[in-house]
Design brief:
By secondary structure, this protein is an alpha+beta fold. It has helices at 101-104, 126-138, 195-204, 210-221, 227-230; strands at 38-47, 52-61, 67-76, 80-87, 92-99, 112-115, 117-120, 146-152, 161-168, 189-194.
Length: 233
């Protein structure tokens, strides 16, 4: 009689591989010592279906000297990058429109958000990643890029740090139709807008995506589409 294989015991993502082959996901943050007022006591892995949800328990010394024990959940989807593509001579920007289910279930009329091209790093450095995402989503192979700033987008619960970039585009930089990667379920519309129309879309509520608003405001105040900067001398 052929013996039955032994059952695999353990917790996926902890001591046995999860669906993405990861283990040790409960260790992240346990060795942090950078803030002397914070001591991490425990990290519990709640989910690693795709991204990683953890419950973190730590002590925190307040400014008045009190020490309390706190519990916070963190959602780790990795870091990402985003880019504003612009044409100074025509004063246009290149955005994308795609369906975002989380926005749809939280009050957005149809879930179709106008955004700057963006994506997760997936093991690449931010500049390499954003060149990849710009090509996949907009169809443009960009040249020199400008790193604008980095920002934590929802630091109360999401670990993601987003790197912001800007770069010019033109008819010559278009190398494909864009639209995203169909095998990953992406269905992305490429949208070119006059810059002033894009700014007005923030006021009207048509553009509600935070990263897009930040880059458009940067372009208007300090970037290449600032009127004083882009005017001929």
């Amino acid at each position: 009689m052929t013996p039955m294989p032994a059952e695999t015991t353990g917790t996926p993502g902890v001591d046995v591989p999860d669906g993405r082959g990861r283990t040790g996901l409960h260790l992240t943050g346990r060795d942090l010592r950078r803030n002397p007022d914070v001591e991490v006591l425990d990290v519990e892995l709640l989910s690693s279906s795709w991204y990683v949800l953890r419950r973190n328990v730590f002590t925190y010394r307040h400014r008045d000297g009190r020490v309390t024990t706190e519990s916070r959940e963190t959602y780790d989807r990795g870091n990402g990058a985003t880019i504003l593509l612009y044409d100074v001579s025509r004063r246009t920007v290149l955005l994308t429109r795609q369906f975002r289910f989380p926005a749809y279930v939280n009050g957005h009329p149809d879930g179709m958000l106008l955004e700057t091209a963006a994506g997760l790093l997936d093991g690449d450095d931010p500049e390499t990643a954003i060149r990849r995402e710009a090509a996949e989503e907009t169809g443009h192979t960009i040249g020199e890029v400008e790193h604008v700033f980095d920002a934590y987008m929802s630091p109360g619960s999401v670990t993601e740090r987003l790197s912001f970039y800007a770069a010019p585009y033109s008819a010559e930089s278009r190398t494909s139709a864009g639209g995203g990667v169909a095998q990953e379920g992406e269905d992305i519309e490429v949208v070119e807008l006059p810059f002033e129309e894009a700014l007005a879309a923030i006021e009207s509520g048509e553009i509600t995506d935070a990263k897009t608003i930040m880059l458009l405001q940067w372009a208007a105040l300090r970037g290449p589409l600032n009127v004083a900067r882009s005017s001929p001398r």
